[in-house]
Design goal:
Elements lengths: L12 E4 L20 E4 L3 E4 L2 E4 H8 L3 H17 L1
Antiparallel strand pairs: 1-2, 3-4
Keywords: Ribonucleoprotein, Ribosomal protein
InterPro entries: Ribosomal_bL28/bL31-like_sf, Ribosomal_bL28_sf
Organism: Candidatus Amesbacteria bacterium RIFCSPHIGHO2_01_FULL_48_32b
């Protein structure tokens, strides 16, 4: 199963790691290690059998009770379509 939010589609992203800049006195940092990609993973949680990122989980939790059922149906329908 993919590491992905079922509601918004947020997934693992890749980017450059931070590198050492110039020092306080303008010294030189010798780059001994090779540059590698860093992995940025969304903060996923299981909510009623659906994987949701933290942002979507907060949205679903804060909905009124009457609207919560509709949003869960919409989320589960989106999960079934994927």
């Amino acid at each position: 199963m993919a590491y992905r939010c079922d509601n918004c589609g947020r997934r693992t992203q890749y980017g450059q790691t931070g590198r050492h800049g110039r020092g306080v006195a303008g010294g030189r940092w010798k780059k001994r290690a090779p540059k590698t990609k860093r992995v940025f993973r969304p903060n996923l949680h299981k909510y009623m059998g659906v994987k949701l990122c933290t942002k979507c989980l907060r949205k679903v939790k804060n909905l009124p009770v009457g609207r919560r059922v509709k949003s869960e149906v919409r989320v589960s329908a989106a999960a079934a379509a994927a």
